[in-house]
């Protein structure tokens, strides 16, 4: 009996030691270290809900780049693991998605897709000192910390570039603006556009707001623009509301030029929308699937083969994000066994030292503020397709 009790005690002691070692291992993982031999990149964005077109495009753009890079040998000789979480463009769900990815072992984040959730999540990545690169969140606050960078243009940059383009190319003299005052993306672009318009020689004859609680009937805003004699209506809004504005303008016999920003991308793929209403609509974007350069055409063909859909700008932004991460990671010589924080510190420097030729711009560089430096293009919708606008044709 004594021998049995002694054996039992030894077994119990071994179990306790093993549990202690396991607990130590858990603490190590919580501190951000990793024994993985792969880079774990997470993505967050809406794959369901009103903004799902954007999130699905980003998810697939990342996937295509990851597959290509892995097939070519990975990053610094190591493969990439990739996982994407749906946030329905909701801040609380986005933070929950971030925590899910942390539990999975995420070391770097591509996301989030939309601005308000990204602004919430950047508080988390900053606290963890995790490297974050958003493909498409445009609010200034979305990358307010030094661990965060973006691939797209910020809201102020889009507002300024739009005013300058309209003025420099003689697209209008009298401009009306319809914007969402409850949305940081829309109001941020509008504010900079209004500021730049005076310098650019544009007259804003009407500036009409709507909110998230009232975004189905735009006849009042359109009538004010029409009565003010606006020959161009600037729409720094998303494609869902833009589709309603175009339909209501047609119904009331108002036919100004319409000019938007990157939130317009997705208009032609909106279910039930009469694309003839979008004829002549212009918007600022760094990418169009109709571009004739070899890089774009290869990307479009590969994307269509993989996902059965033509890529929009958000897919191209996401694709470029992964290649930027690869370039910065190789510049910084990071390895998968580094802690999340050490990896982030190295990536902060690496991002400011690289230059990439991407789908969304050539010779793209980044400053310490996380903002990219690249040129945008303007596309016009003709015959149900996007075409690079050539105003001097």
Q: How does this model look, in words?
A:
The protein has 393 residues and is of the alpha/beta class. The chain folds into two domains: 39-152 and 293-374, 3-Layer(aba) Sandwich (Rossmann fold), CATH 3.40.50; 156-285, Response regulator (Rossmann fold, 3-Layer(aba) Sandwich). The protein is 45% helix and 18% strand. The chain is built from eleven helices and 15 strands. The protein has helices at 2-30, 52-71, 91-104, 115-128, 155-168, 184-200, 219-227, 239-251, 294-307, 313-332, 340-353, and strands spanning 39-45, 80-86, 108-110, 131-134, 148-150, 174-180, 203-210, 232-235, 257-260, 282-285, 356-358, 361-366, 372-373, 377-382, 385-388. A seven-stranded mixed beta sheet has the order 7-6-8-9-10-14-15, with helices on both faces. A five-stranded parallel beta sheet has the order 2-1-3-4-5, sandwiched between helices. A three-stranded antiparallel beta sheet has the order 11-12-13. Strand 3 (108-110), helix 4 and strand 4 (131-134) form a beta-alpha-beta unit. Helix 2 packs across helix 10, helix 3 (91-104) packs parallel to helix 4 (115-128) and helix 5 (155-168) runs parallel beside helix 6 (184-200). The radius of gyration is 24 Å and the shape is globular. Residues 1-34 have low confidence and may be disordered.
């Amino acid at each position: 009996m004594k021998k049995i009790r002694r054996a039992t005690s030894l077994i119990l002691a071994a179990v306790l030691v093993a549990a202690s070692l396991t607990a130590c291992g858990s603490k190590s993982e919580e501190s951000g270290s990793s024994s993985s031999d792969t880079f774990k990149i997470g993505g967050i964005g809406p794959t369901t809900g009103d903004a799902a077109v954007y999130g699905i495009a980003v998810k697939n753009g990342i996937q295509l780049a990851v597959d290509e890079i892995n097939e070519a040998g990975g990053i610094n000789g190591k493969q990439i693991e990739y996982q994407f979480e749906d946030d329905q463009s909701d801040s609380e769900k986005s933070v929950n998605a971030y925590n899910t990815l942390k539990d999975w072992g995420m070391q770097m984040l591509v996301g989030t897709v939309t601005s308000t959730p990204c602004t919430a999540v950047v508080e988390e990545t900053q606290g963890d000192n995790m490297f974050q690169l958003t493909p498409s969140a445009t609010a200034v606050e979305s990358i307010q910390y030094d661990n965060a960078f973006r691939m797209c243009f910020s809201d102020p940059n889009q507002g300024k570039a739009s005013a300058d383009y309209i003025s420099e190319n003689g697209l209008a003299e009298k401009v009306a603006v319809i914007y969402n005052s409850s949305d940081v993306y829309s109001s941020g672009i509008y504010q900079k556009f209004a500021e730049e318009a005076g310098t650019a020689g544009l007259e804003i004859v009407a500036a009409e707001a709507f909110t998230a609680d009232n975004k189905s009937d735009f006849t009042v805003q359109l009538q004010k623009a029409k009565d003010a004699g606006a020959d161009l209506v600037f729409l720094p809004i998303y494609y869902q509301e833009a589709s309603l504005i175009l339909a209501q303008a047609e119904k009331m016999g108002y036919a100004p030029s319409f000019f938007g920003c990157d939130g317009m991308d997705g208009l032609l793929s909106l279910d039930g929308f009469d694309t003839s209403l979008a004829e002549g609509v212009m918007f600022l974007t760094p990418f169009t699937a109709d571009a004739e350069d070899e890089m774009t055409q290869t990307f479009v063909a590969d994307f269509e083969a993989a996902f059965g859909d033509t890529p929009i700008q958000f897919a191209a932004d996401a694709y470029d994000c992964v290649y930027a991460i690869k370039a910065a990671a190789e510049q910084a010589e990071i390895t998968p066994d580094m802690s999340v924080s050490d990896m982030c510190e190295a990536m902060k420097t690496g991002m400011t030292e690289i230059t990439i030729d991407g789908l969304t711009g050539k010779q793209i560089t980044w400053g310490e503020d996380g903002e990219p430096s690249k040129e945008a293009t303007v596309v016009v919708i003709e015959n149900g397709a996007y075409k690079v606008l050539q105003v001097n044709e």
